[in-house]
Write a structure and sequence with these properties.
By secondary structure, this protein is an alpha+beta fold. The protein is 38% helix and 31% strand. The chain has a single domain, classed as Jelly Rolls.
Length: 192
């Protein structure tokens, strides 16, 4: 991992008493329980200090604007524009604070969602192993633009009503493209 990446990601142990948090409002299609949830911070309700939570899903948080401070597995990370955080399953996470101009998107998914979408298991395992030690990625300009578009597509497709099978397949293909971008970014960061 390059030293620029390490210096731009702030990982510190600190007291969390006076911070703010966010509650996500999950969207469900047709009232059915889905294997994924996508959330846009512009549609979230803000409130003081969110309790830490460990979930069985994995999640990708992409910060488009502003700053976010969160605790992931007892380490505090301060993220800024263009950074991506990959949360592996069963890890405790707590959102501590965020800037007023903050805008981010989160895609949470159960591992079976990735596998059923033809996501190569090797890619998912690679991301999980790397993200267990290095959950934050600083994206280059082209990758950041690609990730922004893929999140936009995921959000739009999740809210469109279509034939259930083709709808889910489309979302899984977009998700697979997102995961391939993440794998590629991790590989570039490791090579540098």
């Amino acid at each position: 991992m390059n030293t620029t990446h390490q210096s731009q990601v702030s990982s510190i142990y600190e007291d969390q008493a006076d911070c703010n948090g966010i509650t996500e409002i999950p969207t469900e299609r047709d009232g059915s329980d889905s294997t994924f949830v996508i959330v846009d911070s512009a549609e979230m309700e803000l409130f003081p200090l969110m309790s830490p939570a460990a979930t069985d899903d994995a999640a990708v948080l992409y910060l488009e604007k502003g700053e976010v401070t969160l605790v992931l597995d007892m380490k505090t990370y301060k993220l800024s524009k263009g950074m991506l955080l990959y949360k592996v399953p069963k890890v405790t996470v707590q959102l501590l604070s965020f800037s007023e101009d903050c805008h981010f998107k989160v895609f949470c998914f159960a591992p079976p969602f990735a596998i059923s979408g033809s996501m190569p298991i090797a890619h998912l395992e690679t991301i999980t192993v790397i993200a267990s030690n290095n959950p934050v990625l600083i994206l280059d300009t082209l990758t950041a633009a690609t990730v922004t578009v893929l999140f936009w597509l995921l959000l739009k497709k999740a809210n469109w009503e279509e034939n259930a099978q083709s709808h889910d397949e489309t979302i899984q293909h977009i998700f697979s493209l997102l995961m391939l971008e993440i794998v590629s970014s991790y590989k570039r960061n490791i090579a540098e």
